[in-house]
Structure formats: structure tokens, C-alpha cells
Specification:
The chain has six helices and seven strands, in the order βαββααββααββα. The termini are far apart. The protein is elongated, with a radius of gyration of 25 Å. It has 199 residues and is of the alpha+beta class. The strands form three sheets. Strands 1-2-3 form a three-stranded antiparallel beta sheet. The protein has three domains: 39 residues, no CATH class; 89 residues; 38 residues. Helix 3 runs antiparallel to helix 4 and helix 4 crosses helix 5. Strand 6 and strand 7 form a beta hairpin. The mean pLDDT is 84. Helix content is 44%, strand content 11%. The protein binds zinc ion. The site of zinc ion has 8 residues, from loops.
Length: 199
């Protein structure tokens, strides 16, 4: 995300460039650009985020998928380190922390890696996003604990519609749609009845 104007001459966003990129282009060193992040092409003023004004981004994290949150991170984290870009790219390909990423990693792992490496990301949006992702991970951890600790047949409370066997015991199986849970329950009962007939 670029600053909306130059703090010195008020030139618009079109005149503002990433100082790093510009110095590389012009063959200047970080010392020459005074370690600043931005350069105004109109008045040649170098400046940092704390002097700059940024566009206001509206977001509602509770309603956002992981891929939407990944977009928000990319748009609001200036000069994101390359290493972190990988995690954000991975996040942009999954919708929830329960999703799998590739063959071996879970969404929860990707988000955990991201959080472990996102300490340098500062500001209001950074604070909100990190808090939200931490909550997601903590709640997910609690769900996993519940599954691990549940004794066989003990009803456990999780997101989704539960499937109960004929004795009313929780099978531990969950479906996102009620119809699917009912259909699975029906199939389970039919197979139990068939087993009885065979005996
Ligand atoms: Zn300027």
C-alpha cells in the first residue's frame, strides 16, 4: 500500500515510489536514501511510513476467509520480507485453517508460521489481523483437544452437524450441511439394520 501523498509537497500517489526500488534503479545506496521507505518524484523527498498518510482500508475480519485476509496483509504490509511473502501466498490459496495446504501442511500450520514471523509488522491493521489469527488458532487448538479428550460415544461439541448412531452416541463425524449429516445417519442405520438381518 502506497502513501496517498508526499508529506512535503503534497504531490499525489502517482509521484510516490518505493525508495528501495528507485535507489536500485538509480544506483543509490541505502545510506544515500537515508534508510527511508518512500521517495517523492516531484520534490525528491525521502520519507518513512510514520510521516506518511495511507488510504483507509475497511475490513471485517470475522467475515473474511483466510485468502481474503491474505490479500489484506499483502495490501497493508509495506515492504513485506520475501520469506513472509511465501506464507501469505500459501494463505491466499486456502479458505480456512482447517483446510489442507499441499500434501503435508494444514492451514493452521501456515498461519502459525506466519504469526511466528510477523513480529516486525506493526500498526493498527497488523494488530487486528494478528489478534484475529491468534484467536482462530487458539479456538482450533481447543477443538482438537476436545476431540482428543472425548471418550468414545461421549457427545462432543464442534462446528457442523453431528452424526449419532442408533443408540444416540456421537460418532464423532461432522458435516457442514444438515442434509449431509441426516443422509449419513440414515445410511449408517440402514447398514446397522442389514448387519442384524445377516446375523
Ligand atoms: Zn514531494
Amino acid at each position: 500500500m502506497k502513501p496517498i501523498k508526499c508529506p512535503k509537497c503534497n504531490a499525489g500517489e502517482g509521484n510516490i515510489d518505493n525508495a528501495d526500488d528507485m535507489c536500485e534503479l538509480l544506483g543509490l545506496s541505502a545510506v544515500e536514501r537515508q534508510y527511508k521507505s518512500w521517495l517523492c518524484g516531484k520534490c525528491n523527498h525521502f520519507f518513512n511510513d510514520d510521516e506518511a498518510e495511507f488510504p483507509i482500508i475497511e475490513y471485517n475480519l470475522e467475515k473474511m476467509t483466510l485468502s481474503q485476509i491474505a490479500d489484506l496483509i499483502s495490501n497493508s504490509w509495506n515492504n513485506m520480507p520475501l520469506k513472509i511473502d511465501e506464507y501469505v501466498e500459501a494463505m491466499s490459496q486456502i479458505e480456512s485453517i482447517e483446510d489442507k495446504y499441499g500434501d503435508y501442511e494444514t492451514g493452521a500450520e501456515i498461519v502459525t508460521y506466519f504469526l511466528a514471523n510477523a513480529k516486525s509488522w506493526q500498526g493498527d491493521i497488523a494488530k487486528d489481523v494478528k489478534q484475529h489469527l491468534n484467536n482462530l488458532i487458539n479456538n482450533y487448538g481447543k477443538q482438537l483437544e476436545k476431540i482428543k479428550n472425548a471418550k468414545t460415544g461421549q457427545p462432543i461439541q464442534l462446528t457442523g452437524y453431528a452424526v449419532f448412531d442408533k443408540d444416540g452416541n456421537d460418532t464423532g463425524k461432522r458435516f457442514a450441511r444438515k442434509e449431509d449429516a441426516e443422509e449419513y445417519t440414515k445410511a449408517l442405520r440402514e447398514s446397522e439394520n442389514n448387519n442384524k438381518k445377516i446375523k
